[in-house]
From TrEMBL:
Residue ranges of domain YjeF N-terminal in the record: 9-218
Gene: nnrE
Residue ranges constituting the YjeF C-terminal domain according to the UniProt record: 228-501
Protein name as it appears in the record: Bifunctional NAD(P)H-hydrate repair enzyme
NADP in keyword set: yes
Length: 504
């Protein structure tokens, strides 16, 4: 699913009006009908609905919703803010329609706003500003936002929480943005919804399909997409009837150190559950018995060192290599990692300590081969690109890094994002907060390494790997709950996740 900018969203509306023979006012009527349904589904008529409408089409939506709720016998009160004396045509039409159906609780605010008292049982509909916001809110509107946020009422924002920009909020004023409990987004989701710092502003969100022109969406250029199951399923290549283990690649995981053998176990188990033909684990001698016992399906190659990875492995026999889980950052390990990466000519995944080593020895970043997959969490990424003050800045800098290294970056978190060397950002929808636990990343490295070894392209491995990882996490959550979820549960759920993605 594409994510469009607010400017594109406006163009999409205009294109739909021009090409799908629908009047602008009727598109608004469609939006308002869906908004009303979504509101009625959640709250019954015992709630008073207090609607704050702005001067543009976001306000037009809100006034149309007021009429529809009124006609369903909800108790509705409308405050329309007309401080400049300039209302959009569709907003004006809806004000007229509201009056025509005998509605009387309508207040037009031109200067002084006598704020109604809001209770916890009231529902506020925020239709002040949507995709037409062109600067941070200030003055009287900021005061209205603060009053809404200070109230105990539940808040439903139409399209976006008023005051929030759809993409970049680096220069916004946070306290002047509505804190919604629910955001009912019209057409497509906004990029800002996917950023963790906006969670308390956007609340739970839902997209309402008002029938925006598919043709426009297909042709619209965007760098931001949400991966869907329908994108993932076709990527999976079925196994051949006459296949043998040699057909599915030989993967190598360079993982583990003294006290961190568990990371090696987790990544190896996940790798084996993701279709790899053969797996070898290169690990310090101290982990030999652990791995032979816990992962009998894998071969173990001992490093020269008792406790740490100290000497690069020979890569001739492998189709892919994953480096970093539980490696530690000893000086001897750092040198071995840098040398291993510099000379690597097969598909490569760098995770955890391998990334930390490159952030410490930054001058060696250019040794990372083209098309390498880097799988940092926010902390690991910022050790390389520097501290960022918000997600938009972080993603922009990560795109620069992916471009300069010509690498793939899998930035882990809620909405893990796969960034390609060309700067496309694919947001992954699966997964849950229970997966924020030690070892979860090791599992992902194992999965992606398995996919690379089987011959999936880097982009496919990243997208498919993050999707199935999150899906397994969701299956595990259903079994054990978010609090108890541990990395091993994700691995145990991988078979069901793979099965669900491959069944008809
Ligand atoms: N088009 C369609 O068919 C459909 C559209 N839909 C709906 O329309 C919404 C977009 O409507 P929109 O484009 O009218 O913009 P909207 O967000 O209402 O605000 C514009 C007004 O705000 C003002 N303004 C801006 N920033 C400001 C600030 N900081 N402080 C103060 N004022 C500020 C700006 O004034 P200006 O700066 O231009 O003078 C202008 O008056 C969209 O979110 C969705 O809900 C749906 O119904 C589907 C069909
Ligand atoms: K709004």
């Amino acid at each position: 699913m594409k994510i469009l900018t607010c400017t594109q969203q406006k163009e999409a509306d205009e294109y739909t009006i021009a090409h799908n023979s629908i009047l602008s006012i009727n598109l608004m009527e469609k939006a308002a009908t869906l908004l009303t349904d979504a509101i009625c589904k959640r709250w019954d008529k015992s709630h008073r609905i207090v609607i704050f409408a702005g001067p543009g089409n976001n306000g037009g939506d809100a006034v149309a919703v007021a009429r529809m709720l009124h006609l369903k016998s909800y108790q509705v009160e409308v405050f329309l803010f007309n401080v400049t004396g300039k209302l959009s045509d569709d907003c004006l039409t809806n004000i007229r329609r509201l009056h025509e159906c005998g509605f009387t609780s309508y207040h037009e605010v031109t200067s002084q706003f006598d704020a109604p008292k809001l209770t916890a049982h009231d529902i506020v509909i925020d239709g002040l500003f949507g995709s037409g916001l062109n600067k941070p809110l200030s003055g009287g509107f900021a005061a209205v936002v603060k009053y809404i946020n200070a109230s105990a009422a539940k808040v439903v924002s139409i399209d976006v929480p008023s005051g929030l920009m759809g993409e970049d909020n680096s220069y916004n004023i946070r306290q002047n943005i509505v804190q919604a409990d629910i955001t009912l987004s019209i057409g497509l989701p906004k990029l800002a919804f996917l950023f963790p710092e906006n969670e308390e502003l956007v609340g739970e969100w839902e997209v309402l399909d008002i029938g925006i022109s598919q043709e426009y969406i297909e042709n619209a250029e965007t760098r931001y997409l949400i991966t869907e199951e329908k994108d993932i399923r076709p990527l999976i290549t079925p196994r051949h009837k006459f296949a043998h283990k040699g057909n599915y690649g030989h993967g190598l995981l360079i993982t583990g150190s003294y006290g961190m053998g568990g990371a090696a176990v987790l990544s190896a188990r996940a790798c084996l559950r993701s279709g790899v033909g053969l797996l070898t684990i290169h690990t310090p001698v101290c982990n030999h018995t652990l791995l032979q016992t816990c992962v009998p399906e894998a071969m173990v190659e001992d490093d020269v060192h008792e406790r740490f990875f100290a000497e690069p492995a020979e890569l001739d026999n492998y189709q892919a290599v994953g480096i970093g889980c539980g490696l530690g950052q000893e000086e001897i390990t750092a040198q071995a990692v840098i040398e291993q990466v510099r000379d690597c000519e097969i598909p490569l995944v760098l995770d955890a300590d391998a990334l930390n080593i490159f952030s410490t020895y930054r001058n060696n970043l250019s040794y990372i081969p083209k098309n390498t997959i880097l799988t940092p969490h926010i902390g690991e990424l910022e050790r390389i690109i520097g501290r960022c003050s918000n997600s938009y800045e972080r993603i922009s800098k990560a795109k620069d890094l992916a471009n300069s290294l010509q690498c793939y970056i899998v930035l882990k978190g809620a909405w893990t994002v796969v960034i390609t060397p060309e700067g496309l950002c694919h947001f992954n929808p699966t997964g849950n907060p229970g997966m924020a636990t030690g070892g979860s990343g090791d599992v992902l490295t194992g999965i992606i390494t398995a996919l690379l070894a089987q011959g999936y392209s880097e982009e496919e491995a990243c997208k498919l790997g993050t999707y199935v990882h999150g899906l397994a996490g969701d299956i595990a959550r259903n079994k054990v709950g978010e609090i108890s979820l541990k990395a091993g549960d994700i691995i145990e759920a991988l078979p069901e996740a793979w099965k669900s993605l491959t069944k008809n």
